Predict the 3D structure of the following.
Amino acid sequence: MKIAFLGLGDIGHLMAAHLARDPFDLVVWNRTPLKSEDFARTHKARVAATPADAVRDAAVVITCLPSSVEVEAVLHGENGMLDALRKGAVLVDCTSGDPPTSRSIAAELGGRGVEFIDAPVSGGTIAAKAGTLTVMWGGETTIFERVRPVIEAFGKKIVHAGPVGSGDALKAVNNALLAVHILSAAEGLAILVKAGVDPKVALDVINASSGRSNSSENLIPQRVLTRAFPRTFRLALLEKDIGIAAVMADDLDARTPLLSLTAERFHEAREIFGEEADHVEAVKMVEQENGIEIK
Ligand code: NDP
């Protein structure tokens, strides 16, 4: 099965690695060619020079780009995918995209005999490496069945969220909750550090109690207490996800003040720490504001 994978970023290159083996025949494209050339040196894959070249023969095309803006760009830009996509091909967009753009891409491609599903992932780089990502997809079941083996190569829990755009919607809200949990855990621990409680002791109790979250159980012990702050998921991308959730809330007339405040706070964190910072570095903003370190 001929597969094209576009976007070998922090998570994309780990997902593509599961497709660089039989029965798949993989071609990769990345904006910065150095990354695709490196990938092909260590994996069974060919490098395409442009998005159009990547998708010309592909039955399944996977995009894993920062946002739907870049998916649009790779579709419509110079040497873009649009005119090169084969009739009958399926575009599986694993970007954490936005629902309206995914719906408009699906409609445009549908008119050309090309199918589309949105299929964002969760589980981070650890699950991506292990091939155990959670995949939440939106679209038609008959289309999904055609790409199921491809998605199963990197996904373990694979869930139909609803029509096109539903995977994006679910992903944006999940990540908005992640953002809330990171900041709320950091604020809670900041109070405790100021009160003289050892944050390791605090986490030991919180993680055996009802205040726990993935942030308190994994992110803060592994990345903040250790001061390691590894780059696995850019803060800018998490800010983008909360932004998608905030726009959804507006469009749907949902009252979500907590999510709005978290979106503002992540916007501030992005201004402070820049485009290359990891999402957990938002904790540093809370630390700086309180003149403490959680360690
Ligand atoms: P990265 O920022 O690490 O990589 C982004 C990729 O998109 C790179 O290949 C980059 O190319 C490419 N790109 C950026 N801008 C453009 C453009 N204008 N045209 C073409 N290509 C472009 O992102 P991730 O791999 O971390 O994330 C990809 C998607 O997956 C995002 O939507 C993210 O929210 C989501 N995600 C990420 C997770 C993670 O743990 N990292 C977890 C779950 C979802 P180049 O190499 O040239 O910069």
In short: Residues 166-194 form the longest helix (29 residues).
